[in-house]
Write a structure and sequence with these properties.
By secondary structure, this protein is mainly β. Helices cover about 10% and strands about 35% of the residues. It is built from 8 helices and 30 strands. The protein is globular.
């Protein structure tokens, strides 16, 4: 109990001396950069005019925020879930949890002069994202939760293939892993997950890629199944995947209680996201993981995961390690590690906060980077890109159990350099203060600064 009490104390007060995060973008409601009614695609949409169109006269016409005829759009069903960065693109995903989502994979320019209610731009195109697909090709993106960017300038994501209308979940396409070349905006690989990788309750909402610039053709992807309590491993070189099970992937029964934005509820999400370190002495990375409905942190070597025989055996012995309990109210959605420093950032959903932990230190040194019970409701995705950390918050519990007010800000993207974000917390170290890893982001080098709907 001493460890837990220390952890709670740190989570409560350390954040006051941290620089924290800056609000980069904000939205009252999600809108899009609509295609013009002219041109080839505009004509295609007009031919498909049977789709419901919701035009909101309260939206500013600047940026083309009135949906043209033929696009199914209802702003109250558009909830951004994932964020990631590549060069000047800030990717924003909007899964199809309801009808009325016109595009699931999008971006905005990081250097956009407009920072509030900036329209999302479908990536790579409207044609690839529109639903229903006027061409009936079966190749359009249906529902994407989170994306990964690798050192080989590729975008990885899993398209669940589901439209999650309550009481009537529809499968539009098989669950598919997609890899895109970010330099050409082209799909370079598509892989349908085999049926034996999934179970009836499967829910796929995140992906982590294990690769270096020198091993682009030999990448591995780790795909948590938060609803089916499993982990899927994909080998790009072999173009195959396998599923493994472990008790640590399950929810923790005593940690399924949530109290967020005035709403009390129970969730049962298991393994939610996975985080990779730098390669260890044996050449393999450590993979950290946790359940959403849980407070423990676990670890396993990718030496085990990348070997199908080792990873799928019925008894794992000491392969999987229990790091410890993070403490009460430390339930975490997404997390990510800044590999050079070993600082992990955690979306602490039950605290409306971003936390941090230096994996080289004891678990009871978890600190708060920033907390705000009004502006940071539900930190749903955390990504580290080069020397910066990015966080998206989306007020999801209010969307599920209350009513969002679309006349005020509901969705935000935050960021800061890693060293500034953790300054004054127990996550900071000589590594985060003095090292220069040669990577540069927008702020220069690092040293310079289920029947049920997915909740993920």
């Amino acid at each position: 109990m001493k460890t837990l009490s220390v952890c709670v104390f740190l989570l409560s007060v350390i954040y006051v001396s941290s620089t924290g995060l800056r609000e980069e973008f904000s939205w009252d409601r999600i809108t899009y950069q609509w295609p013009s009614n002219g041109g080839v695609y505009g004509k295609r949409m007009r031919r498909y005019a049977a789709i419901k169109v919701v035009e909101d006269p309260n939206l500013s016409s600047s940026g083309g925020n009135i949906a043209p005829q033929g696009i199914d759009y209802n702003y109250v069903t558009n909830i951004p879930m994932g964020a990631n960065v590549w060069k000047n693109k800030l990717f924003i995903t909007v899964p199809r949890r309801r009808l009325g989502v016109p595009s699931t994979l999008n971006y905005v320019p990081l250097d956009s002069r407009r920072r509030h209610n900036v329209p999302l731009i479908p990536y790579p195109s409207w044609e690839r994202n529109i639903y229903p697909d006027p061409t009936n090709s079966g190749q359009n993106f249906v529902s994407v939760y989170r994306v990964a960017v690798d050192p080989c300038d590729r975008l990885w994501f899993v398209d669940t293939g589901l439209v999650e209308v309550l009481g009537n979940v529809s499968r539009i396409r098989p669950t598919t892993l997609v890899i895109m070349d970010l330099n050409t905006d082209k799909i370079i690989h598509s892989y349908e997950l085999p049926q034996d990788n999934l179970v009836q309750s499967s829910a796929i909402a995140s992906i982590t890629v294990d690769v270096t610039k020198n091993t682009c053709d030999d990448a591995f992807a780790y795909i948590p199944d938060l609803g089916g309590y499993g982990l899927i491993v994909f080998s790009l070189k072999e173009n195959r995947s396998w599923r493994l099970s472990h008790n640590y992937f399950h929810l923790e029964p005593l940690a399924g209680e949530f109290f967020i934005s005035g709403h009390r509820f129970q969730w049962n999400d298991g393994i939610f996201s996975t985080e990779l370190t730098l390669p260890q002495a044996d050449g393999y990375r450590d993979l950290y993981f946790h359940a959403m409905a849980g407070t423990h942190m676990y670890r396993v070597s990718t030496r085990i995961l990348r070997n199908q025989t080792l990873s799928t055996r019925s008894y794992h012995g000491e392969d999987f390690k229990v790091i410890g309990d993070r403490g009460p109210n430390s339930q975490t959605s997404a997390a990510d590690i800044h590999k050079p420093s070993g600082v992990m950032f955690l979306g602490l959903v039950n605290q409306n906060a971003l936390g941090c932990w230096n994996i080289k230190k004891p678990l009871d040194t978890i600190s708060i980077v920033q907390k705000d019970d009004r502006k940071m409701i539900y930190p749903c995705d955390v990504k580290v890109y080069q020397d910066k950390v990015y966080l998206i918050t989306n007020a999801m519990p209010e969307f599920l159990y209350g009513n969002l007010n679309y006349d005020e800000v509901n969705f935000r993207v935050w960021s800061n350099t890693v060293d500034d974000a953790v300054a004054g917390t127990q996550c900071a170290s000589e590594t985060t203060s003095n090292m220069n890893n040669g990577s540069t982001g927008s702020s220069g080098s690092y040293a310079s600064k289920r029947g049920r709907p997915y909740r993920s």
